[in-house]
Each structure stands twice: as C-alpha cells, then as structure tokens.
Here is the input.
Amino acid sequence: MYLNYRILMRTRVITLLLSAMFLLVYFALYQQLRFDQEENNKFTKFYRNNTLSQHVSGQKLGKTSKQYLQEIDYIPKKMQLYRRHLQKLQTDIKDEKFLVVAENLLNDTALLTTLNNSPWQLPSEWVNTKEIMPESVPQLGRLMYEMATRRITGADVGFKGSQLKATLFLEGDQRVAFKPQRYRRNEIISGSPYSGYDRHNGEIAAFHLGRILGFRRTPVAVGRRINLRQELKPVAKPRLLSTFVENGNNSCFYGECYYCRSNLSACADGSIMEGVMILWLPNSWPLKVHRPHPWRRTYKQNKTAQWQYDTQFCDKVRRVPLYSSGRLLLDIIDTSVLDYLIGNADRHLFETFLGKQDSIMLILDNGKSFGNPEIDEITILAPLYQCCMVRDSTWKRLQALAEGNLSSLLKILLEYDPVSSILTDQHYNSVERRLLGVIIVIKKCIEKHSEEIVLITEAD
Here is the structure.
C-alpha cells in the first residue's frame, strides 16, 4: 500500500514537472510568435501606408537603375548643384587649409571623370595598409556612378551576419554587398542604442563622414534603386530566389542571416527596391576578424561589460600585445569618434588586413547608425575618454569642422548620391551637437593630462 502511494506521488510529481516544462516552452514560443507578429504588422503597416514612394520618385516598373537616372537628368542636375556648392564652400569656410580639403572632397564626389580602364581596377590601386583610398580620388564620382548603374550579372544570399543583405555581381565581375531599405528617413528607432535593423542610408552617410574626418577606412557606399523583377531576379541564384515573397503588389525577400525570416522580409515599392551598394574590397587584400572588440557591449540588459565599470580598463587594454604598440588603439579611438557622431553602438568586432604588419582597423558594418537623433550615447566614446588620447591630426580636423562646417559639408556630399536625400535635418543637427561633445571630451583630457600626453603625432 505504501509502495503504491509512493509510486503514485512520483507519477504526479513527474506529471507536474512535465506540465510546467510544457507551459514554459509554450510561453517562450508564444512570446516569439507574438514578437514576430508585431514586427510583421509593423512592416506591413509601413509598406501599406508609405510604400517608400517619397524616395522612389516615380521610377517605373520597366525602368532599370541607369534608365531611371537618365530619365530624371541625374548628371546635368548634379552639375548644376556642383557650381552652387563650390560657391557655398568658398563663402562659408574661413580656414583656407580646410577649404582646400573641402573642395577636393566635393570635386572627387561630384565630378565624373573619364576612365581609360575598368572602374573595378581602381580599388586595387588605392588600397594599402594605411587606407582604403588615398586622400585625393578624382575617379571616385565615376566609380560610385558605375556602382549605381552597372548591369547586375549575378545575385546570391549575403555573407554571414545577423542582418539581411544580398551579394551582387556587377558587369565586369565586381562584387558588392547590397543592404535594402528598412525604414523611412524620418523614422526614429527607439530602444537600446543598437536596436533595429541596419539603416542603408546610415551606411552611405558613414562612408562620406569618414572621408570628411580623414579616416578613409570605410569601403565605398552608394545608394541605388533596383528593379527587382527586371534587374535582379533574372540573374539570382536559386537559394536567394527561394526567399522572394509577395506582399500585395510589392516584391520582398528575406535572404539568409541569423535573424532572417519570411515574415520579416524587406519589401520594394512594387518592384523598385532602394538600398545601398557597398564595394567589396579586392581579393588580394583578405581580412582578419578580431573578436571581441575591447569595448564590446554584452547586449544583455542585466549584464555590464568590464569597460563599463572598470576605470582602469584602458590600462589593461594597453598591456595586450595587439594594442600595446602600433596604430590599432588609435584607430579604435578614431572609430569611436565616428561611431559617436553617427550614433552607432554596435561595434562588437573589427577587421584588419590579414598578414599585413601594422594594418589599419577597417570601419565596416555601419548600418546601426542614425537611428535616434535625439539621443547622444556617450558610452560610444569610452575608448576616447578612458584612454584620454587621440591623434593630433584627428583633433585638428575636428576643430576645423566646428561651427557648422561638418553638417554643411556632409549634406553637400550626400546630395550627389542617387537616392538623396540621405538624412533629415534632425540628423544633421545631431551630428553638430555630438561633434561639440567630442571636442569637450578632448579638451577635458587635455586639461587633465596636457596636450603632450593626449595628442599623439604619428610618423608618416
């Protein structure tokens, strides 16, 4: 009798435990499904109400990217802009040395030089261990135009990562990464500083802002509107083609990535999809991935990283052989300045050139930027204010960009992109405000330690 009672009790306990486990699994699945449904509803509403029409500007179903730009007189209009912008720079910029820099940036962006050879040979001529492109690149405007108009000859799913992207091949066998538009320009991303999907316009703005700062460590990025049905689907590989779905009259795809799901597809306006084309670096310059970034976040609400509470963290980083000498720590600090200006708090790893001594830190994956213009995430600057050191050249450039020069020049350069306008006035204002914050941080470091210690001059 007692034995039967014990067996009965054990059976009940096991039943209760199994029931509890079932409920937990059910609850977790319910939460995930609810999240997916909320995201799906959000994007369904987005495409139903907005359909991206404010940026497609009437591109017709039968038009390719190049035909569309020809139809709207893209090149003649940009030449008219160029003359006006050149005059504005000469009127607004008082620093003669920086005026020369600004004029060169404008010329390289706006003017379409004639090329004797394939534009895809240019990156191989530009790249070295210290930069992706030289300070003066008169062929850049032509290269970006070719990226925005060249015939697409192949398409496949993107390389590894958490965000949706596609790998495209342009006529002449040039590989590019394509990130589709996910948000309207004026949509504000709430939540954590790394929330949301990649912003394609953020990639474009980050490329030009890096040029303005003099870093030149970000691959060329240019906007493009692709006719999916005419330009991409006919040359897509089966594994990418299998991820295409229809949302009403809109063509969508979800690709392959960590967070890619069919109900979270990126959708076009009809068949016209806006996105960013990011130039693939030459195969002769393979990359080495370094993870984690020393100032990586935990991405967990209830857990902080060591750098967030350890006031001596930079001293510990300096003792790591990788950062104890050479350029990498200064590159990380410069990159934190760029990331703060664009609002990118998602720098969890970084790349250098494989097998190259004293290689630069490349500035890749800048899509988690320009999400919320009202928030200045000061912790992005932790490498700067914890190490209290920065290149003297960076400090001089930041000072030259003060008093409106940064946002004004950035806005001018971005007007030449085929999918402009790229940023809202709110975002331009946030860049100016954050620039002031960077300058204040450096000044405080100088007051505490002196210019000799804080400002680092490197040998060429």
Summary: The chain has a mean pLDDT of 89. The longest strand covers residues 272-279. The radius of gyration is 25 Å. DSSP finds 18 helices and twelve strands in the chain.
